[in-house]
What does this fold into?
Amino acid sequence: MSAFLIRRLLRFVVVCLGVSVVTFSILHASGDPVSLIMPEAPEADRAKLRLALGLADPLPVQFVRFVSNAARGDFGNSFFHREPAFRLVVERMPTTLGLTCLAVAMALAVAVPVGIYSAVRRNTVGDHAATVVVFLGQSMPVFWIGIMLMLLFSVQWRLLPVSGWSTWSSMVLPAVTLGAFTTPLFMRIVRSSMLEVVNLDYVRTARAKGVSEWLVICRHALLNAALPIVTVIGLQFGLLLGGAVLTETVFAVPGVGRLIVGAIRQLDFPIVQAGVFLLAIIIVSVNFLVDVLYVYLNPTIRLR
Amino acid sequence: MKRWLLGLTALMIGALVAPTGAAAQGKDTLTIALPNHAPTLDPHMHFERVGVLVNINMFDSLLHRSAKLEFEPSLATSWKALNDTTWEFKLRKGVKFHDGSMMTAEDVKYSFDRVLEPGKEKKKSPQYGNVRAIKEVKIVDADTVQLITDKPFPLLLERLVYFGIVPKKHIEKVGEEAFGSTATSGTGPWKLVEWKRDQHIRLEAFDQHWRGKPAFKYVVFRSIPEVATQVAELKTGGVDIIRNVSPDLLGDIKAHPLTRISTTPILRVHYISLDMRTAPFDKKPARQAANYAIDKQSMITKMMAGLGRQVPTVVQPPAFGFDPSVQPYPYDPKKAKELLAQAGYPNGVDITLHSSSTEWRPQFEALGEMLTEVGLRTTTKMWDPGPAWNKFFQAEGKGTHGQYGNWGNYSVFDADAVLHPFYHTEPGGWIGKHYARVEGLDKLIDEGRSTIDQARRKQIYARIQAMIKDEAPSVFLWTQNDTLGISKKVAYEARPDEWLWLFAAKPAN
It folds into this structure.
């Protein structure tokens, strides 16, 4: 158990280091940052700024400084906001995480029942229809489906607010939009892992004992099929955070994604770095957590 | 069963997304959509259009500009130039700041000194360049201040239209950061209630404002980055005014029963800068040929929904110094071909034009086609406005044969604000140093900016316009409009300076 966790923890650290290399190089991949900040300034002023920002040092020195600062949550001041970039990102993180969690909840709320239905009534018309409808969701890009839902539910039917993030009702459309993107995958996983267990001996035994079909499916089959579902939620979490970037822009949600998009437009590197770094760390942490949860849900893993 | 796990998760989600209070949307509220907010509410510490639009409704300047572009008294009731470099302003009496203190000559001096930071080498205000000509601010008596410039500075009054007067004692008490975010205080019609980053800035009418009460008690500036979302909000009444409506959205907003369009010509001029240092545009007939080749009116009618106006040169009609007697080049492809032959290219010539105005790509390509038709066989190269473009344009300073773009004068209604950056060849200049080589033009531009005698300046600019029309250092195109989408519940019209002066807005009957 502990050896397993230590291995995972080591991997966690390695990935974090990789993330910091990538984040660090964002600034340098796009050319000379100083001429981006002040394109029309004379060279003397640029040299001053370069010195002030520590950009005159050799790259390895800059990298070590970047990592040690990043570890303390210091990414420097945002060029645009003139405030610590990390603080700006952290302030917006709850909104983004909230949106992502809501989206996962929405996706599961659809995917689990439909997936179970498809598994139990395999290869019926209902199974195929469910598959087609749900897959439509994944075929449409997030921003497009967002605008379509907005036109339908807000402009045509006046049921929900167009944009913003102030009331529960304003959160429905962004969460559905983002959730639609991941529902099909969840559904397929629920379906296939249910199919695996639904004909196993203990399920048959449960049925033979006269346990109701409902209980058989929920307690005996679903719980044992849960493992792959948990993995996929973990993996999808990262993708969803990425999707949140577009969803937040479309629905004017004040989250990290929108902050990063704005920062990219304004070439505001500290925010891009802090945002990418923090999101990456969250994704890695979620995956780590999934690993730990695995051990908890499936004791056989501990033996390996 | 791991019910507690589920419960905990639900609880966490609940805590993360807890509602933060709905924005009230009543008849006494005017809501504006902006793509984003400026980094600060401090009127001196940013240079963002979206911030200026908010600030002007909270802070008064010494002068105000009317919708007809005339200077009007604001915090100064009268002003005059005592000599070439000294301007005297009489201050309005009995004006109160939002924090309750009285506006005094001290506050005026403090406001300028805060941006000028005399004696400091590194200035922290990005607006320093706008007012750097002011050498000293002198308090004559309680109601009189003098601004002394280092040399004759004809643009002074222009620069004072957006220069908020801020309360000295208040800022010293609350500190710069609070002043720019939570504890703003100006003399304008509305005061700050709250600023939620990336969500909204909410203002409430200041009941002791010297102009009186505005028609709307509350003003809300919502931050909505996506244009499609802004339009949807406008149609459903979530916002009352959206800005920068593009031609393709006009019909949609016009057709909707609850919304309308308000459009007006603005200061933004479109041009192709020709590189006069290299062939073929080192020859005057070739440059004139390029001007004759463009069917400007068709472009405006067909590609800009009619929302534009031909211009004879780059000087915009609303700017000081515009000479209406200079006529635009007519569309005459035959003449263009003749001139090109005269320049030594009877069989045409290959050229490359560059641009980073991505939102004007169709127009850029149409321009290329028209030039190609008369023998200036054009390759159009569209750049992403970013590092590579900056490097190409700024450092190498060569658009090969030319560059298509548009210029907004930094909202200064004066011919100098386009002529100097475009055609003055001094190092440190903008386009001029790379492209323009017109004999005698530098001297005339310098003359125009070194006197405050407006009649004399008008003559100089008339001469310059006649000269550049003939020399054709650019292809002269059109000025564009600014277009607002407005709720039919609101009476307000777009202004030529693109300001949102909301004191003029009223509920429509």
Summary: Chain A is about 80% helix and 0% strand. Chain A has a mean pLDDT of 85. The CA atoms of residues 5 and 292 of chain A lie 7 Å apart. The two ends of chain A are 9 Å apart (CA to CA).
